[in-house]
Amino acid sequence: MSDPDDGASKDAAEPQPSASELIGAALGEAARRAGLDPAQSRSAGHVVWHAMGGVRGVLESILPSLAFLIAYTVTADPVTHQGDLWLSLAVSVGLAVVFTVIRIVMRQPAAAALGGLIAVVAAAALSLFTGRAQDNFVWGFITNGAYGTAFLVSALVGWSLIGLAAGFLMNEGTAWRRSPRKRRVFFWLAIAWAALFAARLAVQLPLYFAGNVAALGTLKLLMGLPLFAPLVAVTWLAVRALYPHRAK
C-alpha cells in the first residue's frame, strides 16, 4: 500500500521558482503580449508598430498630452504665459476617458488604456491641487525615474531585465548568464534603456523647474514614441541575433 503522504512529499520536494525566474516570466509574458517575441518571424517595423499598439495605441499615447499642450498654449495670457489649467486638464482627461470607453464598448483589452487613464487622472489631480501646470508632468518623471533605475540596477548586478525577459521567451530561463556574449549584449541593452529614461529626465526637469510648460510638453512628445520606437527595434534585432536558430 502506498503512503498517502507520498504525494505531499513529492510536491514539497519540487524546487520552487526563484525570484529571477518569476520576474523573467512576468517580463517575458508582457513582452509576448506586446508582440516582442524574438522567435516570431516578423519584420522590425511590424514588431515596433505592434509594440506601440498600432494606430489606436499611438493616439492613446500622444493625444491626451498633445491636447493639454495645445489648450494651455492657446489660452495662455500674453503677459504671464499661463493658460487655462482647468480647461487644458479637462480636455486631456476627457480624451483618455473616451479611449478607455471605446475599448470597453468594443470588448477589446483595456489594460493599456486604463493604465493611461489612471496616469492622466493622477497627474491632473496633482496639477489641480498645486495650481501649477508643470505638475501635470510629474507622474512622467516618476515613471521615467523608476524604469531607468530598474534597468540600470539590473544591468549593474548582472541580471539585465532584457535578459530575463528574453530567457523566458526563448525557453532557456537564466541560462543566458553562462554566455559571456549574451550577458554583454543584455547588459548594454539595459544600459541603453536606462539612458533613454535618464535623458528624458535630464532634458525635461530643468524646464519643469523653470515653469516652461510649452517647451516641457513639446519635448515630452518628441522624446516619447520617436525615441521609444527605434530602441524597441534595436532591442528586438539584437535579441534575434543572439538566437538565430530559434526563429520560427
Automatic annotation (TrEMBL):
Q: Which domain of life is it from?
A: Bacteria
Q: Which UniProt keywords apply?
A: Membrane, Transmembrane, Transmembrane helix
The question of whether Membrane is a record keyword is answered with yes
Q: Where are the transmembrane segments?
A: 57-74, 86-105, 112-130, 150-173, 185-209, 221-243
Q: Which InterPro entries match?
A: UCP010219
* Name the record gives this protein: DUF3159 domain-containing protein
**Lineage, highest ranks first:** Bacteria, Bacillati, Actinomycetota, Actinomycetes, Micrococcales
